[in-house]
């Protein structure tokens, strides 16, 4: 029998940036629902919840690193002594849900009225487009952290906005546009961010077409 | 319009281990077909081919690293000065092909008659099982490098063998068992390893059931 790892909860702040202002900022916007978690933390916790409940298998991809020098000290584990961050060629998250391939990027903003498209990288847009061509379920999770509002924005709309930016210079999506073209999800307790509810809706909409 | 990165070929030996014997070893088994590439190199090159041809979108996941110390030198890019390798919680490859979620692990052996199951990690088997439950297309690509023979082995068979090992101590799959339960693929020119042909067969078999 395949043994399952015990379903320990992801530590909420394990990957918090080592920024002295972080705790203060996090404390400021702490509430019952999002408990001061970053968007990434909320998604990671939700993924763990979905995995434990056998709802979906979605993981964050590791940050790509170019390793240059590794020490192998006696009697202890290998230490990387020189390495560099590389540009990722895909989005941060992918996985499988009821036979569907899911692919998404998560982005947060402190803005209150619009989301700047420069927060996405071109390779992420290209990758989402490639996955759409293969009939993947592709989207962005956009967090307006100050407003505590979260949107699942289908990649089709995101790519349309990106193309408008290239053509007409319109460099952001207004909150109204995002509201009109996304599925809003409410930050909650378990899972922290029930984005699979929005995925269900994207699948239903797609099957209607 | 979404711009595509130019479809440059993956350098064959870019990720070759810094092992002085490598070139020699690679040279020994070089042939017209696999051109001395490791299994990973053959798969990465095939993924690039499939991506360029819009056949499938499959990427290798980066190695997970725990970063402890980063220097930010003036006028040059950040350098990671202390980091450790972490255990991956998934397989190395996943992606999307015609709406299907693909998930697989690649393993090579110099053996000629059997494949030792200890080459897989338990978390990989657990992950493949979880993805199967979500109706993913899950398999291993097993390379008998000395024989220059390559097999796409469905995860269902792999998990069965893993469970047999836990129960009865049978710690390897014989070449005959692999032949009988896998789809053999021939190393070629473009793509280096046409594993999507085997995926088509797995999908066809599944749809028959």
UniProtKB/TrEMBL annotation, chains A, B:
Single GO BP term: DNA repair
Single GO term (MF): nucleic acid binding
Coiled-coil regions listed in the entry: none
EC code: 3.1.21.10
Enzyme class: hydrolase
Gene3D superfamilies xrefs: 3.40.1350.10
Cofactor(s) listed in the protein's UniProt record: Mg(2+)
Keyword Nucleotidyltransferase: no
Record localization: Cytoplasm
Annotated site (Transition state stabilizer): 107
Top-rank lineage group of the source organism: Bacteria
Cofactor note as given: Binds 1 Mg(2+) ion per subunit.
Keyword Magnesium: yes
CDD domains the UniProt entry points to: RecU-like
Catalysed conversion reaction: Endonucleolytic cleavage at a junction such as a reciprocal single-stranded crossover between two homologous DNA duplexes (Holliday junction)
SUPFAM superfamilies the record matches: Restriction endonuclease-like
List of residues binding Mg(2+): 90, 92, 105, 124
Keywords of this entry: Cytoplasm, DNA damage, DNA recombination, DNA repair, Endonuclease, Hydrolase, Magnesium, Metal-binding, Nuclease
GO cellular component: cytoplasm
Family indicated by similarity: Belongs to the RecU family.
Job description of the protein: Endonuclease that resolves Holliday junction intermediates in genetic recombination. Cleaves mobile four-strand junctions by introducing symmetrical nicks in paired strands. Promotes annealing of linear ssDNA with homologous dsDNA. Required for DNA repair, homologous recombination and chromosome segregation.
Name under which the protein is recorded: Holliday junction resolvase RecU
Species of provenance: Lactobacillus porci
UniProt gene name: recU
């Amino acid at each position: 029998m395949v043994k399952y790892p015990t379903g320990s909860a992801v530590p909420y702040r394990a990957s918090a940036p080592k920024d002295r202002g972080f705790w203060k900022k996090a404390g400021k916007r702490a509430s019952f629902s999002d408990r001061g978690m970053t968007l990434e933390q909320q998604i990671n916790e939700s993924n763990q919840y979905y995995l434990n409940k056998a709802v979906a298998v979605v993981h964050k991809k590791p940050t790509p690193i170019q390793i240059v020098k590794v020490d192998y000290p006696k009697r202890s584990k290998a230490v990387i002594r020189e390495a560099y961050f590389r540009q990722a060629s895909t989005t941060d998250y992918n996985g499988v849900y009821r036979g569907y391939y899911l692919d998404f990027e998560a982005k947060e903003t402190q803005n209150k009225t619009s989301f700047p498209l420069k927060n996405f990288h071109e390779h992420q847009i290209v990758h989402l487009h490639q996955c759409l061509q293969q009939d993947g379920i592709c989207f962005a999770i956009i967090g307006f952290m100050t407003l505590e509002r979260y949107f699942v924005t289908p990649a089709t709309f995101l790519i349309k906005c990106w193309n408008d930016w290239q053509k007409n210079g319109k460099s952001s999506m207004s909150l109204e546009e995002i509201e009109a073209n996304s599925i809003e999800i409410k930050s909650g307790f378990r899972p922290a961010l029930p984005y699979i509810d929005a995925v269900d809706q994207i699948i239903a909409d797609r099957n209607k077409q």
